[in-house]
Amino acid sequence: MAEQGEEDREYREYRRLEDCEEDSPPGEEEEEQLLLHVTEGPTDSWHHIKDLDISLTPPPHIYQFHQRNGFACVVLSDVLELVQFLFVVTFSTFLLCCVDYDVLFATRPLNHSHVPEHTKVTLPDAVLPAPQCARRLRGSGWLLFLLVLAGAVWLCRLVTALRRLVGYWEIRSFYIRALGIPAEELCNHSWQSVQARLLALQRRQPLCVPRRELTELDIHHRILRFRNYTVAMVNKSLLPVRFRLPLLGPVVFLTRGLQFNLELLLFRGPAALFQNTWSLRPQVKRAGARQALARGL
């Protein structure tokens, strides 16, 4: 009984954070709609936001926009990522199709040069002519398939970058018009300063319509929600990150790849426990369905 009481006390320490938008009891929806009014000032899309998490969490929203130092930096980062992808694919194709490694590693003498055999081999000696490189590329079906696949991935990333560009511009306008922080001065403001202006804006012209005033803790919970869930599950020994190996004893194993897969499984995937960034699926809340859901998971 003492152990059970201690466990109950531990679980009570995890206090549920109230949602920005909660279900209203029957008969109160009309009353709440009558109480809502349009505030004076800018009437942009960031007023009366349905899901505050979307505006606070990445990408490319308020917190990450500040952490990545503004519009120019995030756009340049996306452009360089696209260029990096092209460079890696192009250079890998060049190394596979356009380099004669027998000449490069001197396993056979040069056959397209009059240079004596004892002369040092240079990189131009090992590079194949363009027509021969193109023939080797066309003759490799699997390499052509990989190049087509890489091209499709690059186009998807380009479309995603263009879509995020619109979001970047909206957040830039939000910082300038709503928070009063010019783009060139964003790097001089700490997140605490931005957060203070955000809370002041919430009191003056509500971003969302919560049942209680928005606080710093609410913002931190929303930004770190999934990370806090992960830490809590590790503390409760619900995630398999501790193993006992022969001779080495207990070890902790949590790579970035394993962490990504756990987040995809629990938080962001099609079968995740959350139906959006802040609300659990209704079937997860029913105690009678938890065993079946656990087996399915």
UniProtKB/TrEMBL annotation:
Q: List the membrane topology term(s).
A: Multi-pass membrane protein
Q: Which domain of life is it from?
A: Eukaryota
Q: What do the Gene Ontology cellular component annotations say? A: autophagosome; phagophore assembly site membrane
**InterPro entries assigned to the protein according to its UniProt record, in alphabetical order:** Autophagy-rel_prot_9
- Where does the protein end up? Preautophagosomal structure membrane
Task: Enumerate the UniProt keywords alphabetically.
Answer: Autophagy, Lipid transport, Membrane, Transmembrane, Transmembrane helix, Transport
**What segments bear the compositional bias annotation Basic and acidic residues?**
9-18
Q: Where is the composition biased (Acidic residues)?
A: 19-30
Residues annotated as transmembrane: 142-162
Q: Which Pfam families match?
A: ATG9
Q: Where is this region: Disordered?
A: 1-30
Q: List this protein's GO terms for biological process.
A: autophagy of mitochondrion; lipid transport; piecemeal microautophagy of the nucleus; protein localization to phagophore assembly site; reticulophagy
- Indicate the principal place this protein occupies in or around the cell: membrane
Family stated for the protein in its record? Belongs to the ATG9 family.
State its role: Phospholipid scramblase involved in autophagy. Cycles between the preautophagosomal structure/phagophore assembly site (PAS) and the cytoplasmic vesicle pool and supplies membrane for the growing autophagosome. Lipid scramblase activity plays a key role in preautophagosomal structure/phagophore assembly by distributing the phospholipids that arrive through ATG2 from the cytoplasmic to the luminal leaflet of the bilayer, thereby driving autophagosomal membrane expansion.
Q: What name does this protein carry?
A: Autophagy-related protein 9
The uppermost taxa in this organism's lineage are: Eukaryota, Metazoa, Chordata, Craniata, Vertebrata
